[in-house]
Design goal:
The chain has helices at about 15-30, 40-70. It is mainly α.
């Protein structure tokens, strides 16, 4: 054995796979940043549904209040 000679190498087989997974996750995150992101579209649709429900519920409440005012 000589000074400075490599004794052994540690082979890490998981690291290349982890890099591929990290790159895929990064690309997925980047795609979710765009205005055409499926995630963003779904969230916007849910927001619109909630706003429409609020409008409908507010109108229903107003109608119920009017009915109760007639009964009294």
């Amino acid at each position: 054995m000589k000074a400075g000679q490599i004794l052994f190498r540690i082979k890490n087989e998981a690291q290349p796979e982890q890099l591929v997974n990290a790159e895929a996750n990064y690309q997925f995150a980047v795609s979710n940043l765009s205005d055409n992101s499926p995630v963003l579209k779904q969230l916007m649709a849910q927001k619109n549904q909630v706003e429409n429900k609020l409008t409908t519920d507010s109108l229903n409440l107003s109608g119920i209040k009017n009915l109760f005012s007639l009964v009294r």
